[in-house]
Amino acid sequence: MKKIKLLLISLILFSTSLCAEIINVTILGSGNPRPHVNKYGPSILVKTNEYNLIFDVGRATLIRLKQVGLNVSDIDKIFISHMHFDHIVGLPDVWLTAKLWQKESLNVYGPKGLKKFCSDMIELYKIDARYRNKGNLSLKCNEDLHNVELKEDLIVKRFSVNHGHVRNAYGYEIIHKGKKIVYSGDTSISDNLIERAKGADVLIHEIIYAPDDFIEKNKRFQKVYKSHTNVEQIIKILNITKPKLAVITHDLIFFESPKNILKMIKDKYNGEIIFAEDLTSFDIGNTINKFNYESYR
Ligand SMILES: [Zn+2]
Ligand SMILES: [Zn+2]
Q1: Residue 5 lies in a domain
Q2: Which ligand is nearest to the CA of 168?
Q3: Is the model's pTM score more than 0.90?
Q4: How many whole angstroms separate alpha carbon 91 and alpha carbon 79?
Q5: Can you give the residue range of the structural domain that contains 124?
């Protein structure tokens, strides 16, 4: 009898783990404004059974998307963290390619300035439109929506962060059937982010590092340094929020290796943490399974 009971329990556990819906997150671009062969511009794909959401559209987002087996027509919604060029430079590419694919609509959410960017983009590419604008793509650029509620218990919430001189810089919180992913965008240490990231399954956070003597000598860099999150701040954020997995991306690391920075963080933080590469991916279910699409090629 005891054996049958045990068998039944394990069968139930096995079937629930099979049924639990997995949310997949892929870092499409782990880079920053500096061109890099292996690290393209900031962009994150969040994939559920029904939706493909993109957060930031950096350099060559569509190329990385293709590498995970998706086309522009598969994008459901785009969310922009702020209007620095490294986070939006791929948007004209997405929009123009979407027209070529005869996609019907493209919804983009982001900060103040996005609407003007979208209308200027249409103006900028009007010669191309004269030649081949056969589709009827409806481009909707929304600045005002703080929470975007989608089907199947999927909510995207934006929150303000501290990105130096940038007035409207946001992070995003994605909640899906009890799972929570938080993306910092570009920011220095932010109370809002800390509040949102408490209890997150995955926290995707930016970082900056440079040696003290370099910072002291370089006035212009001091401004940049203050508008991003340094190593001590990252350690503080992680020790307060304790995400199941911390993923460092958009690394602005000067005169040091990411490996050593990771070691510095791990000396003072016990949780799981990795530096993202392009196409680093996580399946978030009952556990978090990490892999990289590159290694499957
Ligand atoms: Zn940036
Ligand atoms: Zn920025």
Answers
A1: no
A2: 2
A3: yes
A4: 11
A5: 22-288
